[in-house]
Task: inverse folding
C-alpha cells in the first residue's frame, strides 16, 4: 500500500513558505515581487524547446523558410490557455494534476496514464542525453566524459537543492536560449518578410507541408509540461492572492519560449534555406551545417544553445515524471524532502537520469527513432490529459469560484479538440515512420 502524505509540513517546507510570504510583503515594488514568484511557467515553456523541438524548428526553417512563422501566433495562445488552467488548478486546490486525475478518474486509469507518461518521458530524456553527447562531440569532448558529468551535475542540483535554488538554476539555464536570439540577428534575415509571414498565413495542400504544420503545433504542448507547472505551483505554496503573479509567469514564459522557437526558425531560414540545405536530421546536424554557411561562430552559438536546452530538459523532465508518479500513487514528494523522506520521488528522478545517460553512451543510438517512439506515446496520452485539464478546471466542486468561465471554457474545448486531432494525426504518421 502506498504511503499517505504527511498531514504537516517539514521544517524546510515551513521555512520556504514563510520566506515566500516575506517576499510577498514587499508589495511596494511589484517587479521584485514578480521575480520572487517567477519560475514554473517560464521553466515549463522553455523545457519544451528541447533537442527534439530545436530539431523540428530548424527543419521547418531550413525546408520552408519563413512561411510557417504564422503558426507561432496560435501556438502562443494555445499554450497560455492550457498552462493557465494548470497553474490555476494548483493554486485553487493545492493538488498536483496527477493527484486530481486519480481522485476524479480512478486509480486504474491513472496508473495506465502514469505508465504511458513514464515511457514517453524516459524516451525524451534519452534523446536529451543523446543531444548533449552530439554537441559535446561537436566541441571535441567525448560523450563518455560529457554525459556522466552532466548527469551527476543535474542530480546534485536537484537532489541536493531546495525548491528555490533549483528554480534559480533552471531560470539561469533558460538564459542560454538567448543564444538563438543572437543567432537570428547574426543571420541577417529579411525582417520585413519575417514580419509579413507572422501576420499572413501561407497555406498549401501539399501533404508534407500540412504534416510539418501539424508537427510544429503538436510539439508545442507536451504532457510533462502541464504536470510540472501545476506540481511546482503546489510545492511553492502559492495561494489565491498570488494567482495574478502566477498567471503573469505563465504568459511571460510562453511568449519567451515561442520567441526563442521563432528565432530558431528564422536563423535556419536565413542561412540553411537560403543555401539550399534542407535535410536536417537533428539539432546537432543543424549546428554543424551552419559552419560553411554562417561560419564557425554561428555553429558554436547554435550548439551552445542546444546544450543549454538539453540540460534544462534533462532536469525538468525527470522531475516532472517523479512529481506525477509520486502524486498518482500517494507517495511523499518534493524538492525539500530527503531520500529517507521521499525515496520513491527521488528514486524515480535518479533512475531516469541513469537510464538516459547509459543509453546515450551507446554508439550510433538513433535519436530520431527514439523521438518518433516517444511522439507516438505522447500522441496517445495528450488528448486524455487535455480533456482531463478542461474537465477538472471547469468543475465547480473542485475549483469553486476559480472554475473556467463560459467563454474561456468554450475556447479551451476548441483548443483541446484541435490539439487532440493534430496529436492523433501525428500519431498515425509516426507509426508509418516507425514501421
Result:
Amino acid at each position: 500500500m502506498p504511503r499517505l502524505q504527511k498531514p504537516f509540513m517539514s521544517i524546510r517546507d515551513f521555512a520556504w513558505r514563510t520566506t515566500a510570504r516575506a517576499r510577498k510583503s514587499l508589495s511596494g515594488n511589484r517587479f521584485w515581487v514578480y521575480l520572487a514568484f517567477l519560475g514554473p511557467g517560464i521553466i515549463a515553456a522553455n523545457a519544451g524547446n528541447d533537442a527534439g523541438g530545436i530539431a523540428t524548428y530548424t527543419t521547418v526553417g531550413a525546408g520552408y523558410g519563413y512561411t510557417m512563422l504564422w503558426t507561432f501566433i496560435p501556438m502562443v495562445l494555445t499554450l497560455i490557455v492550457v498552462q493557465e488552467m494548470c497553474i490555476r488548478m494548483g493554486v485553487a486546490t493545492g493538488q498536483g494534476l496527477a493527484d486530481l486525475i486519480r481522485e476524479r478518474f480512478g486509480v486504474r486509469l491513472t496508473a495506465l496514464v502514469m505508465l504511458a507518461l513514464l515511457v514517453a518521458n524516459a524516451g525524451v530524456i534519452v534523446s536529451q542525453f543523446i543531444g548533449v553527447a552530439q554537441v559535446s562531440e561537436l566541441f571535441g569532448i567525448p560523450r563518455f566524459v560529457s554525459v556522466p558529468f552532466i548527469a551527476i551535475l543535474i542530480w546534485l542540483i536537484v537532489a541536493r537543492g531546495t525548491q528555490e535554488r533549483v528554480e534559480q538554476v533552471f531560470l539561469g539555464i533558460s538564459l542560454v536560449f538567448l543564444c538563438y536570439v543572437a543567432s537570428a540577428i547574426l543571420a541577417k534575415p529579411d525582417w520585413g518578410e519575417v514580419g509579413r509571414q507572422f501576420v499572413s498565413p501561407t497555406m498549401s495542400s501539399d501533404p508534407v507541408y500540412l504534416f510539418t504544420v501539424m508537427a510544429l503545433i503538436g510539439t508545442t504542448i507536451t504532457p510533462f509540461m502541464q504536470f510540472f507547472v501545476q506540481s511546482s505551483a503546489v510545492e511553492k505554496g502559492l495561494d489565491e492572492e498570488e494567482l495574478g503573479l502566477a498567471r503573469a509567469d505563465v504568459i511571460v514564459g510562453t511568449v519567451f519560449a515561442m520567441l526563442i522557437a521563432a528565432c530558431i526558425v528564422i536563423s535556419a531560414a536565413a542561412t540553411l534555406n537560403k543555401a539550399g540545405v534542407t535535410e536536417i536530421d537533428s539539432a546537432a546536424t543543424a549546428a554543424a551545417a551552419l559552419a560553411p554557411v554562417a561560419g564557425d561562430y554561428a555553429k558554436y552559438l547554435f550548439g551552445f544553445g542546444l546544450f543549454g536546452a538539453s540540460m534544462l530538459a534533462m532536469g525538468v523532465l525527470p522531475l516532472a515524471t517523479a512529481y506525477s508518479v509520486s502524486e498518482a500513487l500517494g507517495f511523499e514528494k518534493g524538492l525539500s524532502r530527503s531520500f529517507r523522506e521521499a525515496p520513491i520521488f527521488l528514486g524515480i528522478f535518479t533512475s531516469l537520469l541513469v537510464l538516459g545517460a547509459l543509453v546515450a553512451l551507446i554508439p550510433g543510438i538513433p535519436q530520431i527513432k527514439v523521438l518518433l517512439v516517444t511522439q507516438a506515446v505522447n500522441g496517445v496520452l495528450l488528448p486524455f490529459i487535455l480533456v482531463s485539464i478542461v474537465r477538472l478546471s471547469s468543475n465547480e466542486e473542485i475549483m469553486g469560484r476559480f472554475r473556467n468561465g463560459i467563454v474561456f471554457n468554450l475556447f479551451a474545448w476548441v483548443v483541446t479538440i484541435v490539439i487532440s486531432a493534430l496529436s492523433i494525426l501525428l500519431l498515425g504518421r509516426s507509426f508509418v515512420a516507425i514501421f
Observations:
- DSSP finds 20 helices and no strands in the chain.
- The longest helix spans residues 296-329.
- Residues 40-362 form a domain with the Amino acid/polyamine transporter I fold (CATH 1.20.1740.10).
